[in-house]
């Protein structure tokens, strides 16, 4: 399972930061950062989710008001949003 994060879409509400420790506030940019993520060619940040963090990652995606966070299962199916 992986998370895909579109940082350009982020509006800096930081609800994801409250739900999953992988997200950190970047007050300089007014957006969240996804620690350890790799940036893809299209500007999306991707990170494999450790099994023990799956619940928190899913919750972070659910609370994002602009749907900048997507959870993708191992079969490539989008779970959230």
UniProtKB/TrEMBL annotation:
Chain segments annotated as transmembrane: none
Keywords carried by this UniProt record: Electron transport, Iron, Iron-sulfur, Metal-binding, Transport
Listed Gene3D superfamilies: 3.30.70.20
Domain of life of the organism encoding this protein: Archaea
GO MF terms held by the record: iron-sulfur cluster binding; metal ion binding
One Pfam family recorded for the sequence: Fer4_15
InterPro entries, alphabetized: Fe-S_cluster_ET (IPR051269)
Coiled coil: none
Protein name: Ferredoxin
């Amino acid at each position: 399972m992986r998370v895909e994060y579109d940082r350009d879409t982020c509006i800096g509400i930081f609800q994801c930061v409250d739900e999953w420790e992988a997200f950190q506030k970047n007050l300089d940019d007014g957006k969240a950062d996804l620690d350890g993520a790799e940036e893809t060619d299209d500007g999306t940040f991707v990170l494999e989710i450790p099994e023990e963090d799956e619940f928190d990652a899913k919750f972070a995606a659910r609370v994002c008001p602009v749907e900048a966070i997507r959870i993708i299962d191992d079969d490539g199916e989008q779970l959230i949003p």
